[in-house]
Amino acid sequence: MPKRTDIQSVLVIGSGPIVIGQAAEFDYSGTQACRVLKAEGLRVILVNSNPATIMTDPEIADATYVEPITPEFVEKIIAKERPDVLLPTLGGQTALNTAISLHDAGTLEKYDVELIGANVEAINKGEDRDLFKEVVEAVNAKIGHGESARSVICHTMDEVIAGVDTLGGYPVVVRPSFTMGGAGSGFAHDEEELRRIAGQGLTLSPTTEVLLEESILGWKEYELELMRDRNDNVVVVCSIENFDPMGVHTGDSITVAPAMTLTDREYQRLRDVGIAIIREVGVDTGGCNIQFAIDPADGRVIVIEMNPRVSRSSALASKATGFPIAKIAAKLAVGYTLDEIPNDITEKTPASFEPTLDYVVVKAPRFAFEKFPSADATLTTTMKSVGEAMAIGRNFTEAFQKALRSLEKKGSQFSFVGEVGDKTELLEASVRPTDGRINTVMQAIRAGATPDEVFAYTKIDPWFVDQLFLIKEIADEIAAAELLDADLLAEAKRHGFSDHQIAEIRGLREDVVREVRHALGVRPVYKTVDTCAAEFAAKTPYFYSSYDEENEVAPREKPAVIILGSGPNRIGQGIEFDYSCVHASFALSEAGYETVMVNCNPETVSTDYDTSDRLYFEPLTLEDVLEIVHAEQEAGPLAGVIVQLGGQTPLGLSQALKDNGVPVVGTSPEAIHAAEDRGAFGRVLAEAGLPAPKHGTATTFAEAKTIADEIGYPVLVRPSYVLGGRGMEIVYDETRLSAYIAESTEISPSRPVLVDRFLDDAIEIDVDALYDGTELYLGGVMEHIEEAGIHSGDSACALPPITLGGFDIKRLRASTEAIAKGVGVRGLINIQFAMAGDILYVLEANPRASRTVPFTSKATAVPLAKAAARISLGATIAELRAEGLLPATGDGGTLPMDAPISVKEAVMPWSRFRDIHGRGVDTILGPEMRSTGEVMGIDSVFGTAYAKSQAGAYGPLPTGGRAFISVANRDKRSMIFPARELVAHGFELMATSGTAEVLKRNGINARVVRKQSEGEGPQGEKTIVQLIHEGEVDLIVNTPYGTGGRLDGYDIRTAAVARGVPCLTTVQALAAAVQGIDALGRGDVGVRSLQEHAEHLTAARD
Amino acid sequence: MTTSTRGAARVPAVLVLEDGRIFHGRAYGAVGHTFGEAVFSTGMTGYQETLTDPSYHRQVVVMTAPHVGNTGVNDEDPESARIWVAGYVVRDPARVPSNWRSQRSLDEELVKQGVVGISGIDTRALTRHLRERGAMRVGIFSGNALPDEGTMLAEVRQAAEMKGANLSAEVSTEEAYVVPAVGTKKFTVAAIDLGIKGMTPQLMAERGIEVHVLPATATLDEVYAVNPDGVFFSNGPGDPATADHPVGLMSGVLERKTPLFGICFGNQILGRALGFGTFKLKYGHRGINQPVQDRTTGKVEVTAHNHGFAVDAPLDKVSETPYGRAEVSHVCLNDNVVEGLRLLDQPAFSVQYHPEAAAGPHDAAYLFDRFTQLMEGQRA
Q1: Which of B113, B132, B158 is the last residue of a domain?
Q2: pTM for this one?
Q3: Does domain A9-118 bear CATH number 3.40.50.11030?
Q4: Yes or no, beta carbons of B291 and A265 under 8 Å apart
Q5: Which residue of A has its CA nearest to B76?
Q6: How far apart are CA A542 and CA A475, in angstroms?
Q7: Are residues B23 and B154 in the same domain?
Q8: Reported confidence tier of residue A722, pLDDT bands at 50, 70, 90
Q9: d(Cα A641, Cα A627) in Å, to the nearest integer?
């Protein structure tokens, strides 16, 4: 059955900002799908509010709307574009929910838009717990296999409490309906826990519905990825087995592909059930994943859930097998059948087969608990990881150890030296699943635990447990050997030991081990991911390393450029860096280079085998990168290695690569040092005559106190060499300074703490620029909406700057150029400035692609990362202007007066975390970055752009209703005008007594409400927190009181998160919101594609 | 913790291909030497079924999946009473089996049945070699005192070739036996055992068929002595060009127009009985992920394969045969190899692949229903 001929245009909905549970994998999926649809000759209309995505690059779709993914805005786009069909299965839960809303509201019918990929009935059957249970029952009736866990559906707390008895008592699992990434689910061991978890779940569920389930904690967990076409052909693309047994969300588990501990009979039974489910649910075309639990004692199979769409697991399965699920799903949606679609990798065989692997894939999650010190780090059925790394090896141990070192986190690799600790204590600690539990288990093994004990405590499958013992035995052999000979090294390497681990065991330096290894000729070979276990020749060079015999890297003629990616997503280093790497690959490929990508993040576009000429799916450690460089140098000429686009990860390797003779192109390691090292950077500033806030470095409290006394409080303190503001804090007094130094574990003479004067009330400005050694191209100037002191990654900002004048831009340009020149940048640089009074201070400079590059590129319609990659390899800005990659004249500092205003807003993961008492974590912003993603609002005026950014990030700003205001004393003056505006727009104000008094004196009426600490009033007057929970409040303005923090504000802000009420925590945000509310109130908010914006900008530039 | 595999892991082993390529690894299973045709199997599950499939007789099987033995060995999953493979090549054998049905380790089982294997070699390199150069003779030599390479190579080159091998008699049952129907008996089928797998009569029995499994040497009279509603020709090892007796037997069945079903070797025999040739594939199809299209419905099924030979029949037209018109009913989408034949004028069909699966997906189980429908149709 060939392509449908009745479709000319298709609307694709993206997944919006990166949040926990819905991340970069949807950019990978969406980009693939859009490309396929466009290649099929369809007009592709895309909506996605996330600017840091490849899919929102203007060339990926025909009309790209960076607009909020809400039913209101999507309807506007539909009305304007009139697409024939809507494909909702590639943008995660966000796209699916939006599509359902549009269907329910009758919008799709009104504009005659057909849903393709999944119909509404199928989506509901897959997503609704009750309906899905019926599906499983129907399947069981047909094929005699598969059942659901015993469960009850509840809509009220009374039903919840009663439900426990029906299930046979505690523990029980609580799962809210229609939430993504398992938000709000958890295990309840007693009534108190149940009330808390179920209460939260009822609130989070858009249908006020939770499912209570029998506990299958400790069972084996599996997942199948399936695809079905309109001809009812079904294939299982991949099986995945969780290393962590049931109880940990699969996104937080270490997972393995293919399944390792099932016989064929058991596997085929899962396959039969899976296929029967996809048919029963009625996913007509496309993919779905189905999760299973298996009782390790008798093999009883329980079907846990299914997702009738492309998912995080399907991205992982695509990378693990080389079978591009999203791409094929898009083709199926427009009418092709699996047998009509060729397998890209073999080119000769069709996609209607099931990939078979001759290697093992291990995925490990990356967490960010260090950013949320008050959050409970126990892993549950609510996903908490912010990213993941995947590794491929020829056996489990190799893949597993590679995955652990890919996490790039101190202590993530197994260590076999040092105190072992007490066996029983370690075993007991390993019962609780946490980030790093696996290391605890290994410690327990070192301390003498037996395989049976490890299984008894952790329920990790005995086969996996044996693999841990195997690793430990190899470590023992390394330790016991008289000398490191070739056989022993090869054996260690075959089980994934890094040079670092071997060095640690032997008490040697890592580079010494490497030298010995190279001298003995023990080097990895590179194998191909080919979907078919070598049955057919592979045409796609998608490689992984293994210490095996035969190398499959083919010789090449063209000079190659190796681009180092950014590794697992984490807070502070996310998809934005992948974006720059992908752009570099595209630009260099066009410029005639052979591009070679190195990365270990399965969620990304960079690890799509379609992105670069060659892909190495490998950890980004010095050892792994050096081996790839060696392999590529053997294969042909190497023009250079790019380290400045993937964030801190590759940047940190720069000097060591150079020391090992690797040609690092672009900004030199020395220049990177000049920007990162305090002293060196100070000299650059001094030479250029630029002021920086007063500062000093200290390694003790006494030193820090002396500096703070001299420059005056408040001071900004932070460890050196960090990304994302890790450990950064604003300190207002000596007591706190003393405590900070005492708490900081990472302070040492070589890693001093930095103490800066904190510029209160300064305007913070971010600049992205290109420098080629002679010319500066100012990419864009972003003015932060929140004042200095809030991490730039968490701050909203506007481009072009909304309050800066021509003179300011001139000063910023001159300073940027002086720094770029002084540091010696060849490519991108990002500089943060603070404008306090009339002085422009330099806060810091990063000689690399920044988090804001994609935003700046989209807001100004100029591909900065592409230009940076070209400059790294010797092109000049003048040449790039002549070529048309950069505008012929002008730059991001000289945008025309009527250029659109773009606002970037950060998205925070508050709702994911609870403290050990089960309460939410506080939501105030600070100098440590905690956002997971961002959205962009773009429009002709600031107010509308800001309103769009809020709608994209948190849901629409209210245009009326009740606003609650409670601000710190220092904010009371600046609150008055915006408060008056709110009243003018018809809001009823509510305030706590202090704030109400100030408002009253300024002639603004506000209803006084009780503080949480005051409790309910004598006549049953509700406290503000109660009112928020009851849905009585539409907008919250609450700025934190100094440093004490945890007073009323904490309860108010956490209640706001729980209820999803917009909560502004700075007065600057309030002022911006008022402009947004004003724009919304006028009702003239339209939508415009990036292509239209670009056309407009280009016309204005000429 | 030590296991038998761990101890044996240090015993050296060498794999020698007839074209002179040599791989060094460690002994796995029994220690000694063995010869056969080197073939690779790409299934990720089902090693027990693979090892006990009589079609692998005289073949040294290379597993492309690196981890083998993880689920141990149980007494439910074998497809016949013994391991048939001549030798076993794996990369990473399990040290500890883990499965609720496991009764012992695979390593023990291989030792018990005297199957010589090798582990720890680059199985992907070997697979690629076989893909490029074709299936060929191979020897595995393990032990602490190995002959020199020249001697080993000479021994490999003296081993028998698969082309021209007539192996049915070596794998077939000596005595006829009956697999009773499950539930009400509806049909009687005479199944010619050319190397039959246990799952085949089981799936027939589940459909109400009483299966009389007969030796490969059975005569036409012996077949009709059981009063069959249908006749089945099983899978099995060897070169179909040598299978003159089964071809003659099948011709007799076709002349009587008794409903007929063949699997794998049975498909090649039907091909020959219809007058088509057979040929040896370069490296065969062995795996459980092969896309086969049913040309009557256009649907694709994911199927289990184990065949080194194939039928040479025209894909694009209906052929005239001594038994009326015949067509290619199924084709492998990977390489357009004939995967099924069907007579249009009388009730007979066969497939080159394995609808009984074991190991493999159950997509093609409908073919057993098709067989019962043919038998029903004949009665009506």
Answers
A1: B158
A2: 0.94
A3: no
A4: no
A5: A265
A6: 31
A7: yes
A8: low
A9: 13
